[in-house]
């Protein structure tokens, strides 16, 4: 089977990370890149050995040198350019969040269905064996019935000027940038859609949410909590707590090559009045996949294109995530 030929739309940091992953993947090859400026496209092409560099988005969409397009543009541009690529006969891996609203996402998947092309939201952690190992552990009953899901995804940056994450006109903000991961994870392990949502957010000087905390309730009395922020440092870990133990993923969002790890603790929690004593987990599940997380994602997408396995994020999952984002954005005044 020939390798999937990739086009990349946009030349920012995330595009560079994905290009590095494609080069290390087993099933893909870089074929073309497009930017609004020739210098940007040519510089990217030189850095990553891409044979075709084009100086407009339209030119890349119409180019025939590739099979699948990775869309790495700002959030507000995902809808337009994904649909254009699908109608041009390209498969599309679109960066998260796939769109600005659930309605936009629905239209994108409608076009994908009508054109017979594969469209997947680029939550790379979903394709990784570490996440799959955690899913299998939960399904096996390793921690009993799931009761609570806790996640955080935070960072602090001083690079604000010119940063699209701080631009309200581009649907920036912590929730869209990284909170979408926490929502995705919570819905994945709760196994459904939230029945109740409560959220609060803090809006920064630029007019975007710089931090958000939310609670969700799911069927079966499962609760989920998360915090995301662009002005805060946190552990950025995930826990799934059950009635017989808990599962922890120290690095859930970007697992390290060859160092994936899932921890399962089944002992009685240490008593707080006696002082918490550090102890090893009851079980350690090592995930030794040596590939970069974006290489894993590229290979999983290729498998979906070639019908070897389903997409690692299904359309209904993406649309469900967007519905939750819509509701929380409304609650924090960002709709």
What is the compact description of this entry?
The protein has 335 residues and is of the alpha/beta class. The chain has nine helices and 14 strands. It has helices spanning 13-24, 38-48, 57-62, 78-87, 102-115, 129-139, 174-190, 293-305, 315-331; strands at 4-9, 28-34, 52-54, 68-71, 91-95, 119-122, 146-154, 196-203, 209-218, 222-229, 238-242, 246-249, 260-265, 283-287.
What this model shows, in words?
- There is one protein chain.
- With 335 residues, this protein is an alpha/beta fold.
- It has 2 domains: 4-123 and 297-305, Rossmann fold (3-Layer(aba) Sandwich), CATH 3.40.50.720; 129-254 and 258-291, Dihydrodipicolinate Reductase, domain 2.
- Helices cover 33% and strands 25% of the residues.
- The protein is built from 9 helices and 14 strands.
- The protein has helices spanning 13-24, 38-48, 57-62, 78-87, 102-115, 129-139, 174-190, 293-305, 315-331; strands spanning 4-9, 28-34, 52-54, 68-71, 91-95, 119-122, 146-154, 196-203, 209-218, 222-229, 238-242, 246-249, 260-265, 283-287.
- The chain has an 8-stranded mixed beta sheet with strand order 8-9-10-7-11-12-13-14, covered by helices on one side. It has a 6-stranded parallel beta sheet with strand order 3-2-1-4-5-6, sandwiched between helices.
- Helix 5 links the parallel strand 5 and strand 6 (119-122).
- The longest helix has 17 residues, at 174-190.
- The chain is globular, with a radius of gyration of 20 Å.
- The protein starts with a strand and ends with a helix.
- The model has no long low-confidence stretch (mean pLDDT 95).
